[in-house]
């Protein structure tokens, strides 16, 4: 099951963290699809391509283009974002019920309300989701490979301009892909074994990134079984544990989590179940309210 770190397939139960999200006002982490494809007004095929002249005719030959120069061909208008969103829904239609498909389309029109500066960011996220073969919008899942793109939509909607990370390539400065015996993940340089079944590294800003092995939960993997497992793993920090964005694939299941400990320290990450093993990725933020975590959370792969 390899997932590149940019993969942002995550549950629109999130939605996007959930898939609800990235419209003028939709919930964060949630892509927003529409009830009906936007019905943009299109020009009729037989419409004249030359506007009527309102000025006097020029002397012969003065404004005529060279005989061997063909007139420039007009570029077709960009496809409305709402239509692109509906195509994203169409891509998963065979996997969804009629009700789920209706839900997928229910917010597509909102995409057309985004600032013009966000057009490229929105198109990138929708095209990414449509192209992901494992994408299940009807299950409220944002593809891991596209999570950063959908998050960029929310940022752009709030600030009016695309975040630099939306166009930047590569991983954060000073980070690398750590390769263990059974897994690999993008983290600040220097990750080392930190005990039996545990690896960690402390970033210059004080955030600690950790990968720990645990037995996979028993029974069907869902929010409840992950919550029970989390209660055992996070101990005193478990009471405020919140789960979202469950992603189910043939070879693994994962879910995002966040919690606040009694001392106010923040922890967030993702639990990945592969076979009988659960890999728990945790970023210990301390009292920070934010840190670079996307590259860490979405880059996990098993070897």
Walk me through this protein's architecture.
It contains seven helices and ten strands. The chain is α+β, with helices and mostly antiparallel strands and 303 residues long. It has two domains: 129 residues, no CATH class; 128 residues, Protein Transport Mog1p, Chain A. It has a seven-stranded antiparallel sheet with strand order 3-4-5-9-8-7-6, covered by helices on one side. Strands 1-2-10 form a three-stranded antiparallel sheet. Helix 3 packs antiparallel against helix 4. The N and C termini lie close together (8 Å).
- Rounded to the nearest angstrom, the radius of gyration is 24 Å
Task: Give the low-confidence spans.
Answer: 1-62
Helical proportion? 10-25%
| Percentage of β-strand residues | 15-25%
Structure classification: alpha+beta
């Amino acid at each position: 099951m390899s997932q590149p770190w940019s993969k942002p397939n995550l549950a629109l139960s999130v939605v996007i963290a959930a898939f609800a999200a990235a419209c003028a006002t939709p919930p964060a982490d949630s892509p927003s699809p529409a009830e009906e494809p936007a019905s943009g007004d299109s020009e009729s095929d037989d419409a004249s391509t030359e506007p009527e002249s309102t000025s006097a005719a020029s002397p012969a030959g003065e404004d005529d283009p060279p005989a061997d120069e063909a007139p420039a061909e007009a570029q077709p208008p960009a496809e409305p974002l709402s239509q692109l969103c509906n195509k994203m829904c169409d891509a998963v239609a065979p996997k969804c019920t009629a009700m789920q498909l209706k839900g997928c389309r229910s917010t597509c029109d909102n995409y057309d309300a985004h600032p013009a500066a966000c057009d490229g960011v929105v198109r990138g996220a929708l095209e990414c989701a449509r192209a992901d073969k494992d994408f299940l919008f009807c299950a409220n899942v944002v593809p891991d490979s596209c999570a950063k793109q959908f998050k960029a939509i929310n940022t752009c909607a709030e600030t009016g301009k695309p975040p630099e990370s939306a166009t930047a390539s590569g991983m954060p400065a000073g980070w690398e892909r750590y390769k263990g015996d059974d897994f690999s993940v993008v983290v600040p340089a220097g990750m080392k074994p930190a005990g039996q079944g545990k690896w960690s590294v402390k970033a210059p800003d004080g955030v600690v990134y950790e990968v720990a092995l645990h037995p996979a939960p028993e029974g069907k993997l869902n929010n409840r079984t992950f919550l029970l497992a989390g209660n055992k793993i996070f101990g005193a920090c478990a009471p405020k544990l919140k789960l979202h964005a469950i992603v189910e694939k043939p070879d693994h299941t994962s879910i995002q989590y966040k919690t606040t400990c009694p001392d106010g320290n923040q922890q967030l990450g993702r639990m990945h179940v592969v076979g009988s093993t659960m890999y728990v990725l945790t970023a210990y933020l301390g009292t920070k309210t934010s840190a670079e975590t996307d590259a860490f959370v979405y880059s996990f792969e098993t070897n």
